[in-house]
Amino acid sequence: MSQDKKSLLVIEDDPGLQRQLRWSFDAYEVLVASDRESALALVRRHEPAVVTMDLGLPPDPDGASEGLATLEQILELVPDTKVIVLTGNQDHGNALKAIAAGAYDFHQKPFDPNILSLVIERAYYLYALQQENRNLLQAQMNSPISGLITRDPVLSKVCRNVEKVAPSDATVILLGESGTGKEILARALHQLSARREKRFMAINCAAIPESLLESELFGYEKGAYTGAVKQTPGKIELAHEGTFFLDEVGDLPMPLQAKLLRFLQERVIERIGGRKEIPVDVRVVCATHQNLKKLIEDGRFREDLYYRLSEILITIPPLRQRVGDAALLAHHFKNKFCMQEKRSSLNFSQEALAAIESHSWPGNVREMENCIKRAVIMAEGSVIGADDLGLYSTSAAEPINLRQIRDRAECNALMKALARVDGNVVKAAELLGVSRPTIYDLMNRHGLK
What is the C-alpha radius of gyration for the chain, rounded to an integer number of angstroms? Predict the structure, then answer.
């Protein structure tokens, strides 16, 4: 097959139309199939970006059942492929069924080669954009902060701080709500450090009973207690020369806080039941969603341990405070789960996007991921609505039109200036850095007396 031509699959059982389509689209490498079996074989082999197909295929040339079944299987194999359905004048209902099943577009027979050519070119362009977007997302996944997607300036600054801190051995506390990505950043600190070839050991203080937590952290000697049938190193010891991640450190019991403090000061541990001090070279990273200073005030967290742990303190903003990230992540998860669930490309309705942007996301990115996965599975047709998400916008959507945003900001600034100078137009003009006639024009435009 020619390497410089795009492949176009034509599914058509009429030999005359096959020849006409070949001749009309000689700029493409045209592949022809006359039934479902041969079409699926070509799809598996070539994965064409664009397909044109007649719904009336044998053994049901006068109906649409075979064509719709073929469409469904093509999109299961290659969800991003753009399928353009060619229909007769009487097949409008079947064309709508095909669109609902995931077809990109439909075109009536007898087809106009020029118009159909434009539709095909647009389909190739959209396919190329989607592939470019996927490549960009993949590049992001391979970036130093792997697994973290953002355009928010505050979180971007957090990422830069992680990159600065990573090469050092400073102890770091990551503060943020549940689901904001604390473990992702902890792993980034490890991967960007000189310890990347060694172990990254993680332990969640809230997930392990207090009676077992000490042995998990520090290990135990054989015979230290009933059931201790062999010498077992703890997680801190296993992380030697690597990184030890202590998640939910705010739930660490007070007796263990004292033992952890001694380790941080001396860099040696003692297994339970042991008398030997074992030196451990490890980088410690902690995380919590709790307010440690409030815990210190309540007597539930040692102040000296807090200052030992917080050599570097990094605060991760919640999703609701990250500008533009809610919609960005929604599109990312939608594309991810469409591929995972073998669904054709879905789009969000404007109501769904408004609901996503106005929702407070108390569970942050973890809640977002589960919400979008459920919507991809439950959505009927090619559009995800607010009902599929289970979210409803309770406030008016923020304007996205630049003129509206500018007018609102202008009006707010004018009202604040006039209020500050008690309505004195001359002083308001000086405060805003404009002329007095401009103030009068702005007052008239915004209806201010």
Answer: 31
